[in-house]
């Protein structure tokens, strides 16, 4: 069974003739479009495009699918219009908490989309590095990187996507010292790590163990501080790919393979989730994060 959203990607490539043009129309990356089309063809068991240096040309099966995909698109738009008209009756305030990188990359765009169709719902964004206590009412909804979001029995939610980490250095560091591509090659390089505390993810200290002969030159209890130190050229450090791949001053060295890293969870208190406007927001935020999961990976 294929993902219905793949029809939207298929239509964009069919209309644009190239994956780059489709990516621009859809507002996603070109590699994501290529991956979605390949997955769609595998799911349906039929080649829909002929690839060439100049672009993507529809096969006979692809030509037959175009009008059907257009009809599905019209039906989806009708459903969206109907739901949007109903959702305008939603009103209230939602207090959403997330760490700053997650809020900037994932939460803010989702809130913008949600408020276009829900103008009477106010979103209060609570940026915090620590986990606000949903059970005590410090926030209604949390989008957070954690290993087990349901440790508290009063919470409901689910894991949305993986959030892998990798080791990064600055471009200036790479030019001066080279870029190690494996833990073995990192031997002798200066590394940065976090302060050891009970709440740390193991991946934050993984590089110390993977490269025992490296020189530890910096510790910090703040991810943004570690990122700044890497950007300044102090050495290598493990960072979430969400931070590393979206920082033009950083270069990926190698994956944090074998390290346990947290996942992205969407959580709410059971009582808060029963409210219609919060239910609607949770559904919209889940869809947005899953659709933009490529922001959390770095395949460079």
Detailed description of the structure:
This protein is of the alpha/beta class. It has eleven helices and twelve strands. The protein has helices spanning 5-16, 19-26, 30-44, 60-87, 100-117, 171-177, 203-210, 223-231, 241-244, 270-273, 276-291; strands at residues 49-52, 55-58, 92-98, 121-127, 141-146, 155-162, 165-170, 190-194, 215-220, 237-240, 250-255, 263-269. The strands form four sheets. Strands 4-3-5-12-6 form a five-stranded mixed sheet. The protein has a three-stranded antiparallel sheet with strand order 10-7-11. Helix 7 (203-210) links the parallel strand 8 (190-194) and strand 9 (215-220). The radius of gyration is 22 Å and the shape is flat. InterPro entries: LysR-type_TF_proteobact-type, LysR_HTH_N, LysR_subst-bd, WH-like_DNA-bd_sf, WH_DNA-bd_sf. Belongs to the LysR transcriptional regulatory family.
Number of helices: 11
Contiguous runs where pLDDT drops below 50 for at least 5 residues: none
Query: What level of helicity do the residues show?
Result: 40-55%
Structural class: alpha/beta
- DSSP strand count: 12
> Approximately how much beta-strand content do the residues carry?
15-25%
Q: How far apart, in Å, are the first and last alpha carbons?
A: 30 Å
- Using the alpha-carbon principal axes, give the shape: flat
CATH class identity of the largest domain? Alpha Beta
List keywords for this structure.
43% helix, 3 domains, LysR_subst-bd, 300 residues, five-stranded mixed beta sheet, DNA-binding transcriptional LysR family regulator, alpha/beta, single chain, D-Maltodextrin-Binding Protein, domain 2, 12 strands
């Amino acid at each position: 069974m294929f993902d219905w959203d793949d029809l939207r990607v298929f239509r964009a490539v069919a209309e644009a003739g190239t994956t780059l043009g489709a990516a621009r129309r859809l507002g996603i990356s070109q590699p994501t479009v290529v991956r979605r089309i390949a997955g769609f063809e595998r799911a349906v068991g039929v080649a829909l495009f002929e690839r060439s240096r100049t672009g993507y040309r529809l096969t006979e099966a692809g030509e037959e699918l175009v009008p059907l995909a257009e009809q599905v698109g019209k039906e989806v738009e009708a459903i969206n219009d109907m739901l949007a008209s109903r959702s305008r009756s939603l009103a209230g305030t939602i207090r959403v908490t997330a760490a700053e990188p997650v809020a900037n990359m994932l939460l803010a765009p989702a809130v913008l989309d949600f408020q276009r169709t829900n103008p009477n719902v106010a979103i209060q964004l609570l940026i915090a590095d620590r986990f606000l206590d949903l059970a005590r009412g410090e926030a209604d909804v949390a989008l957070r990187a954690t290993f087990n979001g349901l440790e508290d029995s009063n919470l409901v939610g689910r894991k949305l996507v993986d959030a892998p980490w990798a080791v990064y250095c600055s471009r200036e560091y790479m030019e001066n010292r080279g870029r190690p591509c494996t833990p073995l090659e990192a031997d002798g390089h200066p590394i940065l790590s976090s302060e050891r505390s009970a709440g740390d993810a193991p991946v934050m200290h993984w590089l110390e163990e993977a490269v025992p002969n490296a020189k530890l030159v910096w510790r910090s209890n703040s991810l943004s501080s570690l990122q700044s130190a890497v950007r300044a050229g102090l050495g290598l450090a493990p960072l979430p790919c969400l931070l590393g791949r979206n920082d033009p001053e950083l270069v990926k060295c190698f994956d944090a393979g074998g390290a346990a890293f947290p996942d992205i969870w969407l959580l709410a208190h059971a009582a808060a989730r029963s409210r219609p406007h919060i239910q609607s927001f949770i559904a919209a935020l889940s869809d947005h994060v899953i659709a933009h999961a490529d922001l959390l990976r770095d395949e460079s």
